[in-house]
Fold these 2 entries.
Entry 1:
Amino acid sequence: MTATQDVAADSTATETVLHLHRAANAVRQHVEQVVLRPRQLTWTGFVVLRTVWAARRMETRHVAEQAGISKATLTGVVDTLSGRGLVRRSPHPDDGRLVVLQLTRKGQRLIRELLPESQSAEVFALSYLEPAQLAVVTTALRGMIAHLERPR
């Protein structure tokens, strides 16, 4: 590859990452505006609720990891969600130093209301893609994630 080709490849990669970031933010903002804001919920709060709901009970460090946030950020989000009566903290059954999160009944009701609405908003956000295009994008994104999460 020539120096000119290297620059072009770098430029294409940079532009792709820029558009990937903008697209992810656009979808996030759409879901926040249409579904979450009316319920005074942030995207991060929703992701935490959805993560804990799917697992039923989950240790905080695993919630932070799956939600893609720091443990410090999770602490603030959980403080807010707990204050609203949506999530409960409890000591880990085998190690009292660890904390486990679980949704309250109120949190379970809220997430059951939000999931169909958020899925509908996500479908709308991607509705301009044909099913075959959506499959290609999904496969490419999964591959990118696997590539970047692979140990080096």
Entry 2:
Amino acid sequence: MNFFSRLSSHLFNIGSHRQWQTAIAIVALTMSMGYLQPNSAYAQAKNAPQDATEWIRRGRQLWQRNDIAGAIAAYQQASQLEPKNSKILTSIGFLMTQQSNYSGAIAALERATKLDANNAKAFNALGFVYVRIKDYPKAINAYQRAISLDRQNIDAYNSVGFLLTEQRNYQEAIKIYRQAIAVAPKDAQAYLNLGYVLKLAGDSRGAFEVYQQADRIAPYNADVLVAVGDLFAEQNKTDEAIAKYKRALEINLRHPQANLSMSKIWQSQGKYAEAIAALRRAAPLRGNSSPIQRAIADLYMQQGSLSGAIVAYRQIIDELPSDAMAHLNLGKILARQGRNTEARKALEAAEKLFNQQGNVDGLSQARKALAEL
């Protein structure tokens, strides 16, 4: 079995505030709980196999069925039979990371690397675990060891680059991303990562050249088109920026950052309906859409469309009932429409929430609005 899914880093700055939305998606590592001891049902079962290969086969089947605890128990039995098998320990470490048992995972993975100093997968997994517990120096060391063992491991390069950038070590990050491009010259993400760090380092010209390279090798990559469009927008080349954003939207109509960028341009041109439509397309189909709804509410207020703003604020409150500012703004708008009963309810909710949060300024605003009803 391939014990690790393909690593990937998405380290690309996008969004109306030009924030770097990152994620080091090295492996699908999410669940919880601990480490089963060898006295599990497997160990106690009659006719338990004495062949490590059979335990590995069972562990793989349980893993595929997402029975993580059962898979760990099976691999532990295999490890008892073959205590010097680095790959088995790597699988245990990987599985324990899926349970968020990071201390147990580190112990298993470090033992795996001591048994086999050439186990690149174990070093990759160690890097991920150290990132999760925010031990960045150890994470960088683990990923660099993985790179030394596998020069083609593009994702380890990207992970090191991300960590160096988080530490504002831009020059070293630039070096590692250039190495990644040398290894994988067709990987558009590496160009995006490099371009982003060049921008952070103040080299906008260099970033533009890198993004143009990415555009040539991946002309249908919406992220690349948005990156180039953003640079045009920063240079006040609005027509060129719009052309890139529109191309991105032809590829993916709901591309969040293309829509956010287009919305910003439409808003600057007073085209509020177009701006709101773009924001609606940018809203996630699942998850928290409150930042988008807040932007929509602001645009409605700029137009003087109170009813539209009310709908947006109600949606924010549905998603985030503890958002005191949304309650406050909703109450103020309802008061302007003379809907005092609804307004009072919203403002009282805001007052209560601001008080709980210790927000003195917000509490003062809520009480003032209530007094004015």
